[in-house]
Amino acid sequence: MASDFALFFGEMMRRPTQVVAIAPSSAATARLMIRGLIHTRGPIVEIGPGTGSFTKAIVASGVAPERLTLLEMNPRFCEILAEKFPGVRVLNRKAQDIQDIGLTDIEAVISGVPVLSRPTIQREVVGRALEVMAPNGFFNQITYSPHSPISTEMQQELGVHSKKLGTVWANLPPARVFQFKKRAH
Ligand SMILES: C[S@@+](CC[C@H](N)C(=O)[O-])C[C@H]1O[C@@H](n2cnc3c(N)ncnc32)[C@H](O)[C@@H]1O
């Protein structure tokens, strides 16, 4: 079987605007991405899992596989994910479909979907997720920008606030993780 790196790089060459990064995220990034999960009990959705760097950390943290749903638009990645993570629901669907997968009160969304400088994707992916998330749910987003990938204006429009969880220099390229939560009314 091809290594995750080879598969990831090959798919990036085929679909650069979808895959965007040149390598799977590091274990250190995955640890930061799953911050807060230990306090959750309900459904968790990972969007854009790729070859499963974050999925591996989620499952290793003790989350029961049946609590986790993956939404990945790339069919090759879906095959690998289903093989690697028995019991996890792997859907070859877009993150934009999150309202159509039968879940409400989602406690956490872990997102590898590229949203930086893509306002339509931000509305469709983050905006729709918020509508099926629990009131105290959180949305952890990886980005390669030092600033929030969602502008202050868009945060206002979506009704969220954003907090930087940290930077991981040991990632190719260096990664940041931001957390979005619904604003209290
Ligand atoms: C930058 S890669 C991140 C992969 C993995 N999370 C990691 O960090 O190693 C982006 C992933 O998001 C997927 N993707 C992009 N847009 C998507 C969408 N709208 N819905 C679902 N998956 C998407 C790509 O196919 C790819 O697997």
List keywords for this structure.
binds S-adenosylmethionine; 24% strand; alpha/beta; globular
3D architecture notes:
The protein is an alpha/beta fold. It has one domain (4-182): Vaccinia Virus protein VP39 (Rossmann fold, 3-Layer(aba) Sandwich). The chain has seven helices and seven strands; from the N terminus they run αααβαβαββαβαββ. The chain has helices at 4-14, 16-19, 27-33, 53-60, 75-84, 119-131, 152-158; strands spanning 44-47, 68-71, 89-91, 106-111, 133-143, 160-168, 175-182. Strand 6 (160-168) and strand 7 (175-182) form a beta hairpin. The protein is globular and about 50 Å long. The mean pLDDT is 95. It binds S-adenosylmethionine. S-adenosylmethionine binds at residues 18-21, 24-25, 47-50, 53-54, 71-74, 77, 94-96, 112-114, 142.
